[in-house]
Structure formats: C-alpha cells, structure tokens
Design a protein that fits this description.
By secondary structure, this protein is α+β, with helices and mostly antiparallel strands. It is built from 29 helices and 14 strands. A hairpin with a 2-residue loop joins strand 5 and strand 6.
Length: about 850
C-alpha cells in the first residue's frame, strides 16, 4: 500500500521538475527565499564613500563597506569563509551583498573580491569597490548610487540604496575632497570635507526621500571633462590634430618636390648628370598622396565613430577603404633608378599583392552579400546571432582588420624602399620571389589579427565576469547578446586603434624623405668637390623638426590627456626646435669657427689630422698637470706651452681670416664634429645609442602607467589593452630613437661646447612647449609629475648619448685606455669631469624624487 501512495505522488514530482526545467534561468537564479535575510537584522554595517578629484583627470569614487555578522544568527555566515570558487561562498556572498538585485553593474570595479574573517562568534566582511565619473550616466557601486539631478541643474545626487541589510544598523561616512555639497538628514557630524550620519537603519539615514544623502556640485574643470565626449570639441580636437599632421607632412613633401623641380637644381642636374636625384623627386609624390589620404580617412573614421553603431555602412566603407589604400600605395612601384628590365618583376609583384588583397576583400563582401547563408539580416546587426552568424562576424572582422594592416604595411614598404631605407637583400628577395614574400607577410598579418581577436575574446570574458559578479548569468541570453556585441564590433575596436598609431607610418615617410635629401646633398658635394655641409639644409631641417615633434613631442602630449591639444603641441615643438637651431647658428662651436672652417672635402680626409692634433693637445695638457704636481721631468713648462701655441696657430690658420674664440680649443672642435664624416651617420649612431639607453626608461614608464588604478584594471578588460601595451613600448623606443636622431643630425649645429649642453639644447626644444602644457595641466588640477618625469628621462638619455658620442669621436685613443669609461674620464678631465658627474647625479636624483611621488605604497 505504501508503494501505491508513492506512485500517486509521482505525477506531481514530474510536474514540479518539468516546471523547474522550463522556467527561465533568471527566475531560478533570482530565487532568494533561502537567503534568510531576516536573520541579518542584528548585523552592523560601516559604509564609507570617498571622492578623489585633485590631480586626476576623472573623479574617482571609492566605496568601503564593512559588515559585522553574528554567526549564530545567520545560517550561511560560516560559508562566507569558504573558498571564493566554492558554491557556498558565492551563494552566501550573493545573499549578503546583492539579495534580489540581479542588475548588471557596468560601472563598478573591484581590485579583489570581498574578504571574510571569522572572529569568535562573528564574521566580518570587507567589500571595497571603485567607480570613475567619466560621463553623465548613473553609477552604482556597493550600496551607493550616484546620478545627475535634473531638478538641481548640473548637481549630482548620492543615494544610499542597499539591496540587502535594510534593517541592520548602519553608520555612514562620506569624504568629499573639497567638493561643494549639501547633505540631507540628521548627521552626527559635518565639516568642509566630511559628513558622518548617525547609527540607524538605511530608511532613517540621510533623507527620507529615496535615502538621498548628498548633492554634489562638481567644479567647472571636472564638468568640462565630463561633457567632452558628448560635445563637438572632442571630434573637433581630433580633426584638428589630423589636419595639422597632414598639413605638415604635405608641406614637407611640397618643399622637397620644389627643391628637385627648381631651375637652379635642374641646371645642376643637367651639368653633372646626377642619377641620384630621381628617387628623391619620385618619393615626394606618394608622401603627398599619403598626407591627403590620411587626413581624409581620419575624418571619415571620425564621422563613422560618432554614429556609435557598427552595421552595414561601416563594414562596406572599411573594406572598400582598406582595399583602396593598398591599391593606391602600389608597393610594386619601380624606383626611378631601376632599369627597365625589372618590368617583369613589377608585374608579378602587382599580381601577387592585388590577388591576396582582393581575396581577403572578397571574404568580407561574401558575408555582406551572402548574409542569408550566415543567418544574418541585411543590416548584419541582430541581438543574438546564431553560430553561423558569429562565424560571419569573425570573417568580416578579420578581413577588414587584415586589409588595413596590409595597407599600412604596403605604404611603409613603398616609403622605405623608394627612400633607400630597405637593405639590398630584402629588395632582391622581393624582386625574385614576390608571391612568397606576399604570402609570408599575409600569414604574419593573419597571426597579428588572430592576436587581436584573442585579446577581444579574453577582454570580453573578463568584462562579463566583472559585470555579472555573483549574478550567475553565464548561461542566459544576456551573455550571448554580450558576446555577440563584441564580435560585431571587432573591426570597430581595432581599426580605430590601428589608425591611432598610423603616425608611425608618417614617421617612415619623413625618414625616407630625409634620407633622399641626404643622398642628394652628398652627391652634390661630391660632384662639385665642395666641403661636406655641417648639417641638413632648410628642407631637411623641416623634416627633422617634424620627426622630432611626432616622436618625442607626441609621447609627451600623451600625458596631457586631452587630444585637442595635439595639433597645437605639434606646431609648438617644431617652432621651439627651429629656435634652438637659430641659436646654434650663432653659438655652436663650428659656427663660431667661421664658415671657411671644414673638416672634410670629397677625396680629402682631414678628419684624421684633426684627431691627431686633438690627441697632441690632450697629451700636452696632461703633461702640464704632471709637471705642476712635480711628477714629470725632462721637459720645461715653456716647451709645453710653446707646443700648445703651435697647435693654436694651426687652428687659427684653418680659420683663414677669422680668429676663433680663445675659449674654443682643438678638443672642442674635434668633439663638436662628431664621430662620423656626414651628419646622417652621426644621426644614425646617436639614434641607436638613445634607443638602447631608453629601454629601461620605456619599461619604467609602462610600469608606472600600470600602477595607475584605472589603467591597471583596464589591462585585462579593454580589447586593445595588450596591443596598446606593446605599441606603447615601441612608441617610447621610437621617441628615444627620434630624440637621439635629432641630437646626432644637429650635433654640429647645436649651441654649446660640451655634449651635455647639446643634450640640454634638444631637451629644451621639447621642454618649452611642455612648460606651457604643464601650466595648463596644473591649472586644470591634473597631475604634471609624469610629464616632468618624461622630460627628465629625455634629458638623461640624451646626456648619456652625448657622452658616448664623445668617446666614439676619439675612438682611435681606445688603444691607450683599458676601457671606454677610462677614456671618458680622460676626455672630460679637461672639460669639468666633476661637473659632468654632478649633472648626471642630479638627473638621477630628480628621477628618483618624481618616482617617489608617483609610486605610492
């Protein structure tokens, strides 16, 4: 009879199980009847909200919540001390902190999960969260809600809205950090920066109207930042930067073309039959094309980004633009000095490039035209796409990003090849096996795109875990919708990031133009048997100034945190460098020696003679020191001084009619000339030295950026965070290489007798605009310490580069000294060694002091 009764209950059991299985996931997850929230009424809660506004770009809000739970009163209290991965911990923490609230928290950030500690018959839970007020939406963190008030103008209202523990005893505190505020309800104490509410229940705290606690009035400096993204100033600032950059690049290309097409240059070319000028004349055209194209593409992307939707127009325009950029780049284009027999190579190269690019564009267009095959609508956008639709999103995203990476590569190859920057071996392989080269580069680009895609999925997973913490919605439709959005926006994230770093391509174009200028200048001097110029001419100086501004200046402008200033920053850096060059024309060592003083003519090596005289000068001075100390015999002071006068007379005779200043010695002249014959090789050597010296500085700056709370959290949550980290390191290294290149190219034209003075001159060209930016940043109550650190590091790297250039200049004397450091000591013993050491130590102390203020325990 008992078994019969159980059989009667079986249909009811089946019906219950069926209802549970068919119920929505959210309904099962939101069932909090077993939380026993009523047992938490005897708990005590200390809630604190803190605002930080000084020396920050955005207001930081921190919530600290400490809950003290009597363990015997709540059945789930002991589960709080379980492992964070255990179901018991997550269930208990959900009941304690969220309860019936299952809303996604996009604005709440946590450095770590809550910590529970058992203390006798009590369990203490510490729950900390952070938010940044970056726009005008509402913010939820911990038990707090922050929203803009429509009733009170531009003020922000702070609410206490806990989803649990509503009958517990609360003590609430708010730190306002000099923000203007109004507080509501009965408070225990209040002063200019802090408010504390009495120990009561949430319904009795603050204001009875929605538990309103505070009304904040943000300073105008912060309100402007908040309205920046929604205003027209942001796109206008970005457009201004691209207009300035494209305009400067176009100006350099036009000046280069004008030089090659001038009547005087034509007559010189006809007279000497110079074939070295064809490449430089031909390179100005594609550089001008890129200047116009980059500006147009930037404005187009800016307009598409303002729509904030990724649909059919975005994909069609981006695929067409990527393919067009590749075809216009024409990486198979023949150089002007190549013979006609290479026409067959050019045709094979063109077929290979066009074939691979067209195939990738066809894959993207297949998804657009055959959208039904992938289960997608004509617009391609749908809340939750099927598996085939997600495959379509991946294909169109990979094809689009690949096309743009290939376009950047094609332009860089053409600039470098026509500018003479590519090794001969690479050009030979490109001519002999173009299909293999294109296949290898295409595979490499696919690997890079795959890395971008992995970063996207990794960041999407981390973001989902963050916003759904304790909610358990991973199996719901919301998760599919969330992933679907990331897949659809794949090309949006990465194309914007790729074009942000397209200034590197501009740098390659400028460097190619400068190398062509150097080749032309050297060829002219060789044909005319003229003296080697001290440095680049006017068009070359403009290119160097733009390179300096793009590499060094733009890295510094990054710390301004406002891209509206980038265009102005670019121009100011160019102007300041020209001011330093103008000062060098009057105060540099070689300029003060007179125009007729030159160290080298084509076919006549006078540099060795100068270095020999410099060695005699150093020897004689060293002997004079030993004689004064009584450590030298067999020679008199008059004899040594007579030989020094003969060396001086030799120097005067080289200047012809103009006597050099008395304070300039032969050693000064030798070190001012530099280690190489031509300024280009000086620049290349200094760039390599600065690049190597800057590696620790790049790692240090990247580490410093990661210590910032917001940037550190973004590393695992932003789709382009890891690529941005790698690109940031490369950009820093190019900045050090660029500033070293500028120092080497202008080595003979910079003011000052010592290398440290030349280093300071180049740093000053960067520091003058940085000072204006620092004053503006300080006025906006932002942190200028990182900008100051970057400036000091630039000076330190240039100082080391200059000292190393000195030892390389006198490299023939290495045989007399056991090490390069010993040679350096011997060189600067006559030039204020103690001052040089003190100067380096002062820079190291400045870097340490700034780091101490930035890295807080």
């Amino acid at each position: 009879m008992t078994s019969v009764r159980w059989l009667r209950l079986l249909p009811l059991v089946i019906l219950a199980l069926t209802w549970w299985a068919c119920a929505p996931a959210e309904a099962r997850e939101n069932n909090n009847d077993d939380c026993q929230e009523g047992q938490l009424d005897t708990s005590k809660v200390n809630a604190k909200i803190s605002f930080r506004q000084h020396h920050k770009n955005f207001i930081q809000v921190s919530s600290e919540m400490k809950i003290e739970i009597p363990a015997p009163k709540w059945e789930m209290a002991n589960q709080l001390t379980f492992s964070e991965e255990s179901a018991g911990y997550q269930k208990a923490m959900h009941c304690l902190l969220r309860g019936p609230d299952n809303n996604l928290r996009f604005t709440e950030w946590r450095q770590k999960n809550p910590v529970a500690v058992a203390d006798g018959d009590k369990v203490a839970v510490t729950y900390n969260s952070i938010a940044w007020i970056r726009d005008r939406r509402s913010y939820m963190l911990g038990p707090w809600k922050i929203a803009r008030s429509r009733e009170k103008g531009d003020k922000w209202i702070v609410f206490l809205q806990p989803s649990t523990l509503k009958n517990a005893h609360w003590k609430v505190e708010a730190e306002l950090d000099d923000l203007e505020f109004e507080h509501y309800g009965q408070t225990a104490s209040a002063d200019n920066t802090k408010v504390t509410w009495a120990d009561q229940r949430p319904a009795q705290l603050c204001s009875k109207h929605e538990h309103r606690c505070l009304a904040l009035d943000l300073p105008w400096k912060r309100s402007i930042v908040l309205s920046w993204d929604q205003s027209l100033w942001k796109p206008a600032g970005i457009a201004t930067w691209w207009m300035f950059a494209s305009g400067v690049l176009a100006l350099t290309a036009l000046r280069a073309r004008r030089m090659y097409t001038s009547p005087a240059f034509r007559r010189t070319e006809t007279r000497w039959r110079l074939s070295d000028f064809g490449a430089g004349r031909a390179l100005a055209g594609p550089v001008l094309q890129w200047a116009l194209l980059s500006g147009a593409v930037a404005l187009t992307l800016l307009q598409l980004n303002r729509q904030k939707t990724v649909g059919l127009p975005w994909h069609i325009i981006c695929i067409a633009a990527g393919l067009t950029l590749i075809l216009v780049a024409r990486p198979w284009h023949a150089r002007a000095d190549e013979p006609g027999c290479f026409a067959g190579h050019r045709r094979r190269q063109a077929r290979a490039v066009i074939g691979f690019a067209s195939a990738m564009a066809a894959i993207g267009m297949l998804v657009i035209l055959g959208h039904r095959l992938f289960g997608l609508p004509w617009s391609l956008a749908m809340p939750v796409a099927p598996l085939s639709g997600r495959v379509g999103y991946v294909l169109i995203g990979v094809a689009t990003v690949w096309l743009w990476l290939a376009a950047m590569t094609a332009w860089a190859w053409r600039f470098a090849r026509e500018g003479g920057l590519v090794p001969i071996g690479w050009t030979r392989v490109w001519n002999e096996a173009p299909v293999l080269c294109v296949a290898a580069v295409s595979t490499l680009l696919l690997v890079i795109v795959g890395g971008f895609f992995w970063c996207l999925l990794w960041a999407a997973g981390n973001q989902w875990e963050r916003v759904t913490w304790l909610i358990e919605l991973n199996s719901s439709a919301k998760h599919d919708e969330y992933v679907n959005k990331y897949l659809l926006n794949f090309s949006f994230y990465d194309l914007t990031w790729i074009f942000t770093y397209s200034w590197l391509l501009t740098g390659v174009a400028l460097l190619a133009l400068l190398h062509s200028h150097f080749v032309t200048q050297r060829a002219l001097a060789s044909r005319k048997m003229e003296n080697i110029p001290l440095g680049p001419e006017k068009s070359g100086l403009l290119i160097i100034a733009v390179l300096f501004s793009l590499t060094v200046g733009m890295r510094g402008a990054k710390f301004a945190s406002n891209n509206a200033q980038y265009g102005v920053w670019l121009v100011l850096n160019i102007i300041s460098l020209f001011a330093i060059i103008a000062a060098g024309r009057r105060w540099s060592v070689l300029s003060r020696m007179g125009y007729l003083f030159r160290m080298h003519k084509p076919g006549v090596d006078r540099m060795g003679e100068l270095m020999e005289k410099a060695h005699q000068y150093r020897n004689l001075n060293h002997q004079l020191q030993l004689l004064d100390q009584g450590r030298l015999s067999g020679v008199t002071c008059d004899q040594l001084e007579g030989e020094l006068r003969e060396l001086r007379q030799w120097l005067v005779s080289r200047c012809l009619a103009k006597n050099p200043p008395n304070q300039i010695s032969i050693l000064d002249v030798a070190l001012a000339w530099g280690p190489e014959v031509h300024w280009w090789f000086n620049a290349r050597r200094a760039a390599l030295l600065a690049f190597c010296f800057g590696i620790p500085a790049s790692f240090g700056l990247l580490y410093l950026e990661s210590t910032d709370l917001y940037d550190g959290l973004q590393l695992t949550l932003e789709p382009t965070a890891i690529p941005n980290l790698i690109a940031g390191f490369i950009a820093y290294q190019l900045a050090w290489g660029g500033v070293g290149f500028t120092l080497g190219a202008l080595w003979r034209q910079l003011p000052g007798r010592r290398s440290a003075t030349r280093a300071w001159s180049v740093t000053l060209a960067y520091a003058m605009p940085a000072l204006l930016l620092g004053l503006l940043t300080r006025y906006a109550d932002s942190n200028v310490s990182v900008l100051l650190l970057y400036s000091v590091l630039t000076l330190f790297i240039l100082t080391l580069t200059g000292l190393w250039m000195d030892t390389t200049t006198l490299k023939e004397e290495r045989q007399y000294w056991p090490s390069r450091f010993a040679l350096l000591l011997s060189i600067h013993r006559l030039r204020g060694l103690s001052g040089q050491i003190a100067w380096l130590l002062a820079q190291i102390a400045a870097v340490a002091a700034i780091l101490k203020t930035l890295i807080k325990p």
